[in-house]
Model the fold of this input.
Amino acid sequence: MICGVPNVGKSTLVKALRGQSIAKTGDEAGITKVEQRIALHKYAVLLDTPGMLWPRIDVEQSGLLLAASGAIGRNAYDDAEVALGLLARARVRSPAALAARYGVKGLGASSDDALLAEVGKRHGGLRAGGQVDLQKAAERVINDFRTGAWGPVTLETPEDFAHWQEAARAAQARKAQAQVARKAEAAKGRRGG
Done:
């Protein structure tokens, strides 16, 4: 069985194993809608499954990177927010890749918003009157990342994820404590005390 998160190449792997176009593929999440049984050999059947994500993504940075990779459908995120998050991570992890791709110098001196606007100015994201179309610039950044135009970049390490996960757990614990306190206060109020 081939299974995993959306848009990681499960159906592409099936096509390669089969040697022909059996499974429908595309550069977006959700192309495979139902399980598909594909005979590889007389005694081997492969099951291609739709991608699956966790019911709730507690680590905010993971959600951003999943959206950037295309694992989350386009209607579930804001392009500009994802592009800004990508640029923020890449400025730290791979500034040379950004500078080479977009011809922007002095990445450390500018904000992520300014960098996104610069990408729009330099790469077809200008509206009439010279105003930057931030939506078009964001789409460009996301597409460049997904297609590998930045070159090999790493946006997270296992240590980063462990830190993010710990911060998410601490935030969840604070939220749970606040909820317990609110319920206790409400119960106290109902008892008249």
About this structure: The chain has a mean pLDDT of 82. The CA atoms of residues 183 and 189 lie 10 Å apart.
